[in-house]
Amino acid sequence: MLHLLLLVPIVHCDAAESWQFGFQDAATPMMQGIIDLHHDIFVFLVIILIFVLWVLVRALWHFRYKRNPIPGRIVHGTTIEMIWTIFPSITLMFIAIPSFALLYSMDEVLDPAITIKAIGHQWYWTYEYSDYSSDEQSLTFDSYMIPGDDLELGRLRLLEVDNRVVVPAETHLRMIITSADVLHSWAVPSLGVKCDAVPGRLNQTSIFIKREGVYYGQCSEICGTNHAFMPIVVETVSLDAYVSWVSSHT
């Protein structure tokens, strides 16, 4: 039985599910860092919640009206004031240090092997593979959502597009993101990417996808009537398959 289980492929959650509680499965080191930071901070949150609840219950029990009909008047307490200043400061330091390290790594841009430009429109995305563009030809295409009536069996409603962004796995990518009209936001949760598309400005982010798969995202900036109908689909393939895809599109 065990050897049969080992043969079953791992199914990753790379798209939103109904009533989902928690993050989608991480496909990049950045997203894994975000999930780990969330879990670390959640530990502090639970400890603080239990402590504050204990203090409230204890205060309500020991200082209720029947036990203390005449309340005491305390206007100053040096010890308790030092405690509630020092301990939150130490807690914030333990939270800040790993978050600063993650923010620094998110802003760091390594030498990319592939550069892709995403341009937001009302209401679709245009992608330009800058490395394969020249005066004679360019690898540029528009990506529209597939209407529900045209979906094939097994495809995801409101998330599938006619042209996916195809990239190789385990390769340093650079996404340059901008907009042609209003504010948009290029966001793919499994990749840990959410970058605003601002008219007249180029924003960039680095991506390193660890495994092959299909990753779904959506515009995360309210951009008009059809804001909910401009999804993002990134398909990660092997290097050989990527080279074949590029050859067939140039």
TrEMBL record:
SUPFAM superfamilies: Cupredoxins, Cytochrome c oxidase subunit II-like, transmembrane region. Belongs to the cytochrome c oxidase subunit 2 family. It catalyses: 4 Fe(II)-[cytochrome c] + O2 + 8 H(+)(in) = 4 Fe(III)-[cytochrome c] + 2 H2O + 4 H(+)(out). GO terms for cellular component: catalytic complex; mitochondrial inner membrane; transmembrane transporter complex. The keyword Chloroplast does not apply. GO terms for molecular function: copper ion binding; cytochrome-c oxidase activity; oxidoreductase activity. It comes from Isoetes engelmannii. Keywords: Copper, Electron transport, Membrane, Metal-binding, Mitochondrion, Mitochondrion inner membrane, Respiratory chain, Signal, Translocase, Transmembrane, Transmembrane helix, Transport. Its main location: mitochondrion. GO terms for biological process: ATP synthesis coupled electron transport. Binds a copper A center. Residues 111-248 form the Cytochrome oxidase subunit II copper A binding domain. It is found in: Mitochondrion inner membrane; Mitochondrion membrane. Component of the cytochrome c oxidase, the last enzyme in the mitochondrial electron transport chain which drives oxidative phosphorylation. The respiratory chain contains 3 multisubunit complexes succinate dehydrogenase (complex II, CII), ubiquinol-cytochrome c oxidoreductase (cytochrome b-c1 complex, complex III, CIII) and cytochrome c oxidase (complex IV, CIV), that cooperate to transfer electrons derived from NADH and succinate to molecular oxygen, creating an electrochemical gradient over the inner membrane that drives transmembrane transport and the ATP synthase. It is a multi-pass membrane protein. The chain crosses the membrane at residues 39-61, 82-104. PROSITE patterns: COX2, COX2_CUA, COX2_TM. Its cofactor is Cu cation. Residues 1-18 form the signal peptide. Gene3D superfamilies: 1.10.287.90, Cupredoxins - blue copper proteins. This is Cytochrome c oxidase subunit 2. Residues 15-110 form the Cytochrome oxidase subunit II transmembrane region profile domain.
